[in-house]
Write a structure and sequence with these properties.
4 helices; seven-stranded antiparallel sheet; 160 residues
Amino acid sequence: MAKAEGAKPGIKIIAENRRARAEFFIEETYEAGLVLTGTEVKSLREGRANLKEAFGEVREGEAWLVDCHISPYAQGNIFNHDPTRPRKLLLHKEEIKRLLGRTQEKGFTLVPLKMYFSKGKAKVEMGLGKGKKLHDRREELKARAAGREVERALRERNKG
């Protein structure tokens, strides 16, 4: 998979959830490690992960990544993994306590933004987000279009 522009050295992006920033206001981001089996790591190295339906939750003092689809490894045998099993997130206790309090507030949810390898370890960037309403998305699109118009006008003015 090609490296993303602006990516830090030593980081290989596996999967991104581009819809997350369009559907949620992201308040805070957290970097969490993942507890994986061997075939899951091999499948991730091939870039076979999907974060579209995934979300995070805190239960019994632990953080979990739920509904993240990691395809079974092609050369795996009877030891292959379940593609959508819940995976434990590795976070500090203070972060888990903060997330537990914030996710219990009305409207906040834990959304995976991207999955990547950092120094050989699988990591996931989780965002604490609040869902956007339809009118919020429309306003964002209008603002983006207005910004493009301004940029275009400035280029035209500087050209002539």
